[in-house]
Structure to design on (429 residues):
């Protein structure tokens, strides 16, 4: 519970040492009482005095036993005392409004809660620590410096002097643009950290694609049979593989299909390749690498997809991997070679880059749009210089770019945008 009068408001429902007199950052032992003064639970109450609390306001955290009935009774009692439930993200929103966090940090809390692998967790923690804000601030300062130079010039424009060398302005604009572009590029490369890797399992009928999905998943999810064309629709499941979040997509075997439904399945398999971050081309070792496999390989290469060739059924025949790049030999039946395959997949997605301090992923659309807009504004400024426009026009464009970057960390005035950001939080955060 958070708010200016919270200590007085909760006091009547607490039997123990006084909450109002408790020192900041202490834990008070006692019993929580209902409106009718009966004991609801034995609790510990943590006491925080604003502004030194998460929200920046006076805050109490009530720790009770984990029983739904108890929690409901406590909430009902508080509600009766005029304390309403927080909206989703409201605690974090207040922390932002009270200046405890900037927007990137507030959003990082939501990312942290939703992170599905340890790299995503550490990325969110870095942002929470203020690293994204620092990067954005560095870019912003570069532009402020540039705008400042132009404005000095404007002050003296009466005297018709050109004090600032335009080539320096151009250089600064290029530097800022490069900083933002490379940041966006790096983020795009590492997007899989937050969003997961889409791994399409493709190949000819009966190669063992569904068996591989099941083996990686550790349970029978997709139907496996010796009838060719068993899988028609795609089957998708998410797993955690060597600390990466991987979305497995089992597809219909690719061949010249006769019936309409199978044809549609084959079409979807090709689409899966297009949408994948990585393609596992499963080959039946007994049958060997065929012309059809070569067609699939070419398709993946044309689309510049990461590709691993997986020779399956090694219990029947050991494949000769020479001449193949990124190939492994496995058997889903005896479950051999699966670890090698997993390692091969994680090798293709090096996350070591993330450990470097300056590497942070922005997968937040709001941040991405702001950066892209800022780049565009700088391009306009550059064009203005090249077309020989006056300094005031150029300065205006640069000010617009600065404005865009400021949006990332928080000078957002629209309540709609703010509500939108915090709406995505879960209740109680
Ligand atoms: N001996 C052996 N048989 C396997 C292995 N993996 C799969 N099979 C068999 O191969 C047959 C086809 O397996 P599936 O996993 O259904 O093949 P698929 O690629 O999904 O086939 P479609 O869905 O028809 O495209 C089944 O009878 C499996 O039991 C393996 O490693 N060794
Ligand atoms: Mg199948």
């Amino acid at each position: 519970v958070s708010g200016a009068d919270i200590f007085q408001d909760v006091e009547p429902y607490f039997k123990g040492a006084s909450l109002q007199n408790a020192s900041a950052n202490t834990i008070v032992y006692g019993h929580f009482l209902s409106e009718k003064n009966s004991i609801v639970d034995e609790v510990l109450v943590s006491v925080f005095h604003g502004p030194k609390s998460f929200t920046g306001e006076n805050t109490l955290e009530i720790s009770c036993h984990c029983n739904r009935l108890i929690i409901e009774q406590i909430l009902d009692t508080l509600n009766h005392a005029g304390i309403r439930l927080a909206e989703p993200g409201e605690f974090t929103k207040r922390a932002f409004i009270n200046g405890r966090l900037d927007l990137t940090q507030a959003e990082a809390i939501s990312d942290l809660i939703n992170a599905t692998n340890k790299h995503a967790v550490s990325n969110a923690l870095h942002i929470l620590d203020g690293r994204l804000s620092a990067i954005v601030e560095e870019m912003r300062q570069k532009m402020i410096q540039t705008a400042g130079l132009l404005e000095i010039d404007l002050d003296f424009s009466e005297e018709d002097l050109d004090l600032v060398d335009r080539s320096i302005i151009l250089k600064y604009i290029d530097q800022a643009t490069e900083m933002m572009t490379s940041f966006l590029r790096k983020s795009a490369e590492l997007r899989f950290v937050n969003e997961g890797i889409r791994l399409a399992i493709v190949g000819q009928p009966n190669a063992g694609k569904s068996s591989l999905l099941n083996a990686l998943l550790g349970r029978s999810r997709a139907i496996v049979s010796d009838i060719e064309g068993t899988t028609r629709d795609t089957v998708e499941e998410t797993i955690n593989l060597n600390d990466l979040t991987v979305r497995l997509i089992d597809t219909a075997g690719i061949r010249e299909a006769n019936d309409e439904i199978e044809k549609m399945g084959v079409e979807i398999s090709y689409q899966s390749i297009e949408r994948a971050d990585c393609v596992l081309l499963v080959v039946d070792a007994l049958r060997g690498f065929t012309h059809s496999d070569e067609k699939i390989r070419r398709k993946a290469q044309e689309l510049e997809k990461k590709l691993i060739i997986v020779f399956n059924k090694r219990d029947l025949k050991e494949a000769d991997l020479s001449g193949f790049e990124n190939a492994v030999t496995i058997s889903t039946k005896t479950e051999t070679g699966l670890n090698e395959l997993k390692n091969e997949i994680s090798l293709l997605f090096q996350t070591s880059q993330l450990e470097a301090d300056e590497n942070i992923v922005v997968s937040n659309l709001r941040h991405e749009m702001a950066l892209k807009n800022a780049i565009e504004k700088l391009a306009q400024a550059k064009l203005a210089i090249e077309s020989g426009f006056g300094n005031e026009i150029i300065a205006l464009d640069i000010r617009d770019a600065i404005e865009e970057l400021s949006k990332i960390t928080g000078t957002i005035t629209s309540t709609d945008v703010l509500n939108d950001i915090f709406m995505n939080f879960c209740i109680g955060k």
